[in-house]
Specification:
Low-confidence stretches: 1-26
Order of helices and strands: EEEEEEEEEEEEHEHEHEEEEEEE
Number of domains: 1
Radius of gyration: 18 Å
CATH class: Mainly Beta
Distance between the termini: 30 Å
CATH superfamily: Exo-inulinase, domain 1
Structural class: mainly beta
CATH topology: Jelly Rolls
Largest sheet: 9 strands, antiparallel
Number of helices: 3
Number of strands: 21
Length: 257
């Protein structure tokens, strides 16, 4: 059975099957580690057919976020975060498809100031200790300016930052600290952005297992001694032109041996 709530598709599990419309299919299972296999139950899905009302945008001046061709599209100059409005409770997995757009046949002056292969970034499990029940209480303060997110607790990956020379994972502590471990500071071209290609991103927060995948390749596999177990997802960028599509959230349950 399929219900629509503000364009979010809620899936009802019946008799061990995920029911989508009239079609049923087995629940999905994934091996996250050598000793952790999970069942994934779809709980939120947004294909942007009905617009972008499920998203809260924080953006600096001179940029825009809009609905186009069945996708959420961002043109940004100084900084932007598009938050999924629903607060998520773990263990969860988030999946989505993103494309960084760049017309390589034209100059920036010809094609617009936003096209740049850089900063396909994300936040997940984000909370504000000052406003634990309302992440958006300080939206007017953050306004998309990157340093203004330092007071949040969250996980962050910046893919192709620093003009597409770095991909980094950080754990924000909520007090301004966001240490960067050497193993999480990647600069090999394989971890950077190739524009105009679909990037399938998967984020995991299962107890202490925190993971980031791109196109089914595990890039970050972190064990958090003090894991964040609830919070919001945000698509983050700066000086970038990109699209978001096929956003899904799954509830994860361990499959016992």
């Amino acid at each position: 059975m399929l219900q629509n709530v503000r364009g979010i598709k809620l899936i009802v599990v019946m008799a061990g099957l995920v029911m989508i419309g009239c079609e049923s299919k087995p629940e999905r299972s994934l091996a996250l580690t050598d000793d952790l296999t999970v069942k994934a139950e779809l709980i939120h899905s947004d294909d942007f057919t009905d617009g972008i009302d499920n998203w809260k945008v924080e953006q600096m001046p001179d940029g825009s976020v809009y609905h186009k061709d069945g996708k959420l599209e961002i043109n940004d100059w100084r900084g932007c975060t598009a938050w999924f409005k629903e607060k998520l409770e773990g263990p969860i997995m988030i999946e989505y498809e993103a494309v960084v757009l760049q017309d390589t046949t034209k100059s920036q002056e010809e094609d617009g100031i936003f096209d740049r292969a850089s900063d396909l970034n994300c936040f997940w499990m984000a909370t504000d200790s000052e406003n634990p029940d309302d992440l958006f209480a300080k939206s007017d303060f953050r306004t998309g300016r990157f340093p203004n997110y330092d007071t949040l607790s969250l996980y962050y990956v910046g893919m192709g930052g620093h003009f597409n020379t770095k991909t980094r994972f950080r754990r924000y502590t909520g007090n301004g600290e966001k240490p960067l471990l050497p193993a999480h500071d990647l600069s090999d071209a394989v971890y950077l952005i190739k524009p105009n290609t679909v990037k399938k991103i998967r984020l995991v927060a299962f107890d202490d297992v925190i993971q980031y995948y791109r196109n089914d390749t595990l890039i970050y596999d972190y064990r958090d001694p003090r894991p964040y177990t609830e919070g919001h997802f945000g698509l983050r960028t700066v000086h970038n032109h990109m699209t978001l599509d096929n956003f899904k959230v799954y509830r994860l349950t361990k499959i016992e041996d």
